[in-house]
Amino acid sequence: MIYKWEIPNIWPNKRIGMIIKGTGTDRFEFRKCELLSEDNTICPNIVFECREKFLFDVLPNSGLLLIVSKRVLDIMNNFCEGDFQQFKANIFVGEKEIEGYYLLNILNKIEILDKEKSIFTTILDTDAILNLKKAVYKYEDLLGRHIVRNADCLSHILVTEKLKEIFEKEKIKGVEFGLE
User: Fold this and answer.
1) Are 108 and 115 in contact (CB under 8 A)?
2) Beta bridge partners of 103
3) Which pLDDT does position 14 carry in this prediction?
4) Residue 57 confidence (pLDDT) above 80
5) Where is the Immunity MXAN-0049 protein domain positioned along the sequence (predicted)?
6) Are 91 and 101 in contact (CB under 8 A)?
7) Are 152 and 162 contacting, i.e. CB atoms less than 8 angstroms apart?
8) Alpha-carbon distance 90 to 59, whole Å?
9) 3-class secondary structure for the chain?
């Protein structure tokens, strides 16, 4: 099975970090699924309004960047090394910088959407997907990868059932995995 990485449905807005524009590499660079220069890539500042105790393993944010704790990074490095690139995240609660979080740059994308069976709308006069209402995939797996972006809708991060099960077993907080 294939699952979509999602912000939990009941997540309070004040626990979703806000990206501060102009403080780092543009968030859309992380959707290209390309290896980024470690010397020239800076995670933008992400500020949370909640108390530090409400920062969990995965930090949902306004830019849909993958921000994870060292604990999640270790799981990912052990299970799907080579599927992503990591950068130190710049996380703040108010003015206080919080250490121990990383931005993940997913390196692979797959043209996985079966456009004949899926239900979606496109941006006027383009093939770009604006709203994906029902996704039907061409494949049952991610072609040997454990985490990828959907090439037809780059904001969608897809994971394998095995990675989902590891997160559930480890009780990772801050992410849900949904079926499309």
Assistant:
1) no
2) 67, 87
3) 87
4) yes
5) 47-177
6) yes
7) no
8) 12
9) CEEEEECCCCCCHHHCEEECCCCCCCHHHHHCCCCCCCCCCCCCEEEECCCHHHCCCECCECCCCEEEEHHHHHHHHHHHCCCEEEEECEEEECCEEECCEEEEEECCEECCECCCCCEEEECCCCCCEEEEEECCECCCCCCCCCEEEECCEEEEEEEEHHHHHHHHHCCCCCCEEECC
Pairwise CA distance, residues 153 & 156, whole Å: 6
Distance CA 122, CA 127 (A): 6
Q: Are 59 and 173 in contact (CB under 8 A)?
A: no
- What does the domain layout of the chain look like in residue ranges? 2-178
Q: Is the pLDDT of residue 180 over 80?
A: no
Give the pair of three-digit tokens for residue 131.
């709203």
Cα–Cα distance for residue pair 126/120, rounded to 1 Å:
13
Residue 136 neighbours by CB distance under 10 Å: 13
Distance CA(68)–CA(101), nearest Å, equals 5
Hey, what amino acid is at 100?
Answer: G
Question: Which pTM does this prediction carry?
Answer: 0.92
* CA–CA separation, 171 and 5 (whole Å): 15
